[in-house]
Amino acid sequence: MTDATLTQWSNTQHMKPTTFVVLLFCALIAGIIILVMRSDRAHDSQGSASKDGSADTVILRGASQFDENHAFTRTIRKFEQLVSEYYDGPVKFEVYLNSELGLEKDYFAYMSQGISVDYGIVSPAHMSTFSSAAPLIDMPFLFRDIDHWHKVLDGDAFQPIADEVRQKADVMIVGYAGGGTRNLIVNRPVTNMADLQGLNLRVMGAPIQTRIFQAMHASPTVISYSEIYNAIQTGVIDAAENEAAGIQQMKFYEVGPEISLTRHAITVRPLCFSGKTFRRLPKDLQSAIERAGREAGAYGRHLESTEDAEILERMKADGMLRLHQFTQRDELMRLAEPVKAAYAKEIDAEDVLSRVNAVQ
Questions:
Q1: Is residue 13 part of a domain?
Q2: pTM (2 decimals)?
Q3: Does residue 4 belong to any structural domain of this protein?
Q4: Are residues 190 and 290 in the same domain?
Q5: How many domains would you assign to the chain?
Q6: Structural domain includes residue 22
Q7: Beta carbons of 245 and 304 less than 8 angstroms apart
């Protein structure tokens, strides 16, 4: 109680009982209001979106596993540029690079909680805890070719998954980046099904990744992205799979210089934004974020898809790696089909798979 409240209380012995009750009730209500206001301020200070010394400037924080040269980071920078262009108010961006705040799975958890990270690019595999259908977005052999991939992402085939992620994880998918073609990174040449037999291969944590490579007679194992280099170097695994930008950035070519061109996936990397942060922002800033997300995603897809082959060829020319055509890719696609269909049924995503397949 405040001093004034205590004084009032001391005088209640001269008051009627009804007056005392009213004053006590008012004091309690005032105390509750003060506590709620303090709690709200404390909650806001824990959130990742904040304001600087200028009362109106919003600070938004992003994160990337990579440096400024990586396509994901450049896509994030494009997103920031577009938000600033479409929002009339003052907004500042802080981006933590080179895994300073952990890995993509950590960014997604932070965005879900509304702390530390407001936006970032995240592999769909890291959304599987909240949406069992999310890994389908990045399923091997999902897209027929790069043209099919473009058309799917320009449409709404993945909208049911985006809705589920927003509802259950409180994370918004505001755009779709990606565009790298994933191949095998191996410590020896792999050119056919016989070479693939029993290959100890690192895959992402989503079950579909393991199942498809098992169907192809490899021996997949889940290992953290940050541990791939040492795992190949020490012989824990023989291979991994990634797109050109990742091979270059993480220097996987030093331990796995034999690149098998299986072209088993064209990546989709959602550009995400924290739902909790989003709801605290002004309406016009929310609109700017949604518009910028769509456009930055399209920018990122063009950027990475055009640079992917160039990066591989440049590293080949520089003697960093060797490229090997996988001569039985049609067999890989045949083996993948029943696994894809069974998995989509299991996770209740048959409709999404049908929507993707229907895109011409």
A1: no
A2: 0.74
A3: no
A4: no
A5: 2
A6: no
A7: yes
pLDDT over 60 at 36, yes or no:
no
pLDDT for residue 206: 76
* Pair (319, 291) in one structural domain: no
Average pLDDT over residues 176-183: 94
Reference 356, options 197, 206, 155, 165; nearest CA is 155
Rounded to whole angstroms, what are the CA distances from 230 to 187, 207, 244, 315? Answer: 12, 23, 19, 21
Contact status, residue 178 vs residue 123, Cβ threshold 8 Å: no
Query: Residue 291's pLDDT band (boundaries 50, 70, 90)?
Result: very high
Q: Are residues 69 and 209 in the same domain?
A: no
Report the alpha-carbon distance of residue 50 to residue 68 in Å, rounded. 24
Residue 119, classed as helix, strand or coil, is: strand
**Alpha-carbon 203 to chain mean position:** 17
The angle subtended at Cα 332 by Cα 327 and Cα 337, nearest 5°, is: 155
Range of the domain at 87: 51-177+268-305
User: What pLDDT, on a 0 to 100 scale, did the predictor assign at position 29?
Assistant: 52
Q: What is the mean pLDDT of the chain?
A: 87
Same domain? For 197 and 258 the reply is: yes
Where are the strands (E) in the chain, listed by range?
Answer: 50-51, 58-63, 91-96, 119-121, 171-186, 200-203, 219-222, 239-242, 258-274, 322-325
Cα 178 to Cα 5, 61, 165, 304, distances in angstroms: 62, 21, 18, 6
User: Is residue 40 scored above 60 in pLDDT?
Assistant: no
Check pLDDT > 60 for residue 47.
Answer: no
Q: Which residue has the tokens 């303090």?
A: 38
Is the same domain home to 157 and 126? Answer: yes
Can you say how many angstroms the Cα of residue 27 is from the centroid of all Cα atoms in its chain? Answer: 48
Same structural domain, 221 and 206: yes
Percent of the chain topping pLDDT 70 = 85
Take residue 220 and report the two structure tokens written for it: 């997949």
Both 87 and 219 in a single domain?
Answer: no
Q: What is the pLDDT of residue 56?
A: 84
Three-state secondary structure call for residue 240: strand
- Do 301 and 172 belong to one domain? yes
Exposure string over 148-158, b if 16+ CB within 10 A, otherwise e: bbbebbeeebb
Scan for tokens 């994880």, then name that residue: 169
